Amino acid sequence: MILGLVHEQTGSDGFLVGLGLAVLPVPPLLAAFRWLDRAAPAPRRNLLFAFGWGACAATLVAITVNGFATDWLASSVLPRAPDRADALGTTLVAPVVEETAKAGAVLLLFLHRPRDFGGVVSGVVTAGITATGFAFTENILYLGRAFGEDLALGHSGLESTTLGTFVQRVVMAPLAHPLFTVLVGLGFGAAASVSPRRRTLRTALPLLGLAAAVTLHAVWNGAATLPRPVFLTVYGLFMAPVLVVVTGLALWARRRLLRTVRATLPRYAAAGWLAPPEPYALGCLRARALARDLARRHHGRRAARAVAEYHRAATCLAVLRARAEHGAPPPGFPAHERALLRTLHRHRPLASPATASAALEALPRPSGIWWSRAGVEHGSLVDQEK
User: Fold this and answer.
1) pLDDT digits (tens, 9 = 90+) for 292-330
2) Residues 10, 12, 13, 14: what is their CA dihedral angle, to the nearest 10 degrees?
């Protein structure tokens, strides 16, 4: 449906040109969010759902509702000023409709995949990938329309509307939609860390995030309708600082997640589920990468995938236990913990030696004989190489 609607508004040539240009920022944006998600990677099916929702469902809702609202404003509220009706729809209506539509993906995963929604990082990544899909389809529409106008008016080169649209939407502001919707993700991520008994707070946090996203989106759209110097001023003095703050919060949340892993997993190591050095390796992204490389070097890609799944299960286990100990256990906590422990046990023969070896090689060695003994008992790949 969305492809047919966009094709109808751009034409075949405009659609193909818009598609070719709109796809350019998608791989680096997805790579950036996947990099942020390295500590506790979300299942790919969730990320595919988020991108698909943004690219298809959210854009379909936005195009339909925005078009209806703008037509109503032009015919009923401001019949003598259609330009003002269009600007009003862009500034006041579109931010509410679009951010609510994009937030639908985050809400559905928050409600129906709570096991995969571990906190702020999960919310930021889910929201950012949803918004990336939304911006992709919207850019096809805007760039396709611009190309159609250039064909009709005979514009080309530096005078073309297509070039101006490309510079504004793809070069200067590829992070605009992700930045807006990440605020929604922050709200849902914070709500995931709150006890289910505190229903008012769990409801208020996502709504605050949505309100912030709508406000930021409205400021951006309003600035885009003003002269270029005003737009550039808003871009430099308002949007850029917000981007820096949000990026800093996301990185802080990831560091906090890794600290939680290092603080929580030693209890499972004491119970025999992990080797003593492993909690330290699992709390360090460099050691994790080294463990995957060691497994791949000695046992092939299947072993590297097993290590990655082992690390993800251990991280989820740490987050789950930490939330339970802080009074916010997710639904089905005992069953989820057992499932994660079974995953650890299944992948342990391949993953544990590589992870323990990575701890020995990448992290400072605490004093005491237990560290070196653990490496020997679990078949340290570093020792095997030597």
Assistant:
1) 999 999 889 999 999 999 999 999 999 889 888 877 677
2) 20
